[in-house]
Design a protein that fits this description.
Layout lengths: L11 E11 L7 H15 L3 E8 L4 H9 L3 E6 L8 E7 L3 E8 L6 E9 L2 E9 L7 H14 L4 E6 L7 H9 L1 E2 H6 L17 H17 L11 E5 L4 E8 L17 E10 L1
Parallel strand pairs: 1-2, 7-8
Antiparallel strand pairs: 1-12, 2-4, 3-4, 5-6, 6-7, 8-10, 9-10, 11-12
Helix pairs in contact: 1-2, 3-4
Length: 275
């Protein structure tokens, strides 16, 4: 009698969901915007949440976690004096075994990483908010090189990178990582910043609107305000992106100009295949 040996390999999966959003450090409309952020997160029900521009004076990341329930909050303030005002945060409803902070060395910028053990797999999940200056991508390129070296494999890093997909800093990120939105959809979103959020009629906001119109004319050669893709979820290629889409993209029902933030966020379903 012949005996056939079954060489079929059996695979298991570790899957999680992740949302990322720059909360906007301007608290002028926070009471209204915060409710929209909570509403969207309650709809998405992500396992992990990454925030940038957390306002330390009210710790709105903790406030959001308290409204949702079930999340542990890991906070990473900027370095130096800026840390009194601004921070990153990662929220997790999965078990976290480690958390690490990393200084990028410019404008007090930092990165935050947690280690999650989930369904037999180790996940390294990070968030960052890199250097801001429209005309200086060299500094961001230096930060990108450091982030690529710092994050263990298999890694996911998300946040506001203050750079569009074709910038050298983002091309450096893509030498190692895939953009989750591209992996899932074949292209980046139309834009992630800024939303139509109206932040008031004061002089500062008028200057901001004028600057965006000028940037649109210079970079897009169009008589319209600048919009761009500067928010990303990056993951190692070994991580399968099952889904990724823009989130936090709906205004309040009563006010078209009231959005959760001046940024759109991203939501992704990610999976590791284990033998």
């Amino acid at each position: 009698m012949w005996h056939v040996t079954d060489h079929t390999q059996h695979y298991t999966h570790s899957a999680l969901t992740l949302a990322s959003l720059n909360l906007l450090d301007d608290l002028t409309l926070w009471d209204q915007r915060g409710a929209l952020v909570v509403r969207e997160l309650d709809r998405l029900q992500p396992d992990l949440i990454a925030f940038q521009e957390v306002r330390m004076s009210i710790n709105n990341a903790q406030w959001i976690a308290d409204q949702l329930g079930g999340y542990e909050v890991f906070l990473c303030p900027k370095t130096g004096e800026r840390g009194r005002h601004d921070a990153l945060a990662l929220l997790s409803r999965l078990p976290v075994t480690e958390h690490h902070e990393f200084s990028l060395g410019h404008q007090g910028r930092v990165a935050l990483r947690i280690v999650v053990e989930h369904q037999g797999a180790t996940w390294h999940i990070a968030t960052t908010h890199t250097y801001w200056h429209p005309l200086d991508d060299r500094t961001r390129l230096h930060e990108a090189k450091r982030l690529v070296e710092w994050l263990p494999t298999p890694g996911v890093i998300c946040g506001d990178f203050n750079a569009e997909p074709n910038y050298p800093s983002m091309l450096k990120m893509k030498e190692r990582f895939q953009s989750a939105h591209v992996a899932a959809n074949g292209h980046e979103p139309t834009y992630t910043c800024p939303t139509p959020l109206f932040r008031g009629a004061g002089a500062r906001n008028s200057v901001r609107r004028t600057s965006l119109q000028l940037a649109g004319l210079i970079t897009k050669r169009k008589l319209e305000s600048w919009t761009g893709v500067i928010d990303f979820i990056f993951s190692d290629p070994a991580i399968h992106v099952k889904e990724c889409h823009v989130a936090f993209n709906h205004p309040a029902g009563h006010d078209y100009h009231l959005y959760p933030s001046d940024h759109l966020g991203l939501y992704a379903k990610l999976q590791q295949v284990l033998k």
